């Protein structure tokens, strides 16, 4: 069985003569984050022109979306290649964890306990997701912040969020490429607020939510500021 280099998960059995199966494999890769045509070609051992033909069809059908890279992310020289994301239609093929049942349950929580009960439930849920991760101190180094963000991403991935940590100007970004509760979070923003709260609590540094899947974006992106003195603090610790 073939495995994706990016996600370490098995890809669908591919018949190279079956375009639909190839596009299913591409969609599986995009579920774990945005990719360029060349990156997809490398993952699936296909030519870049062949991948672009499939991507053009997926974009035309509304399954995928082509976008320019985020201006916040670090870039090399030359014109940046377009990134391809799954659209909301594309994500729907992979299902959502709660949807109708969760909406009914959260409505009942709010009816019985009011907004405070809904907030408490949402925050407890997020604490359960990241259980075992220790909050950072104020003097944490960039390496500390990076390590904590990676632990958060791993915890989120276990719950189906397809999360990655990317370098960005002035810090890093936590990018969730799939949200198993996106449709629910649209009606209950307390879920997104609780997620933001737990990220701030664990990372203990200024963060900013740049986009959310629940409100139409391709990813849930949180910018994490790394203090300028973090490198200096790290050097001082090493000399001590």
TrEMBL record:
This is Transcriptional regulator. One of its GO terms (molecular function) is DNA-binding transcription factor activity. Residues 22-63 form the HTH arsR-type domain. InterPro entries: ArsR-like_HTH, HTH_ArsR_DNA-bd_dom, WH-like_DNA-bd_sf, WH_DNA-bd_sf. Pfam families: HTH_5.
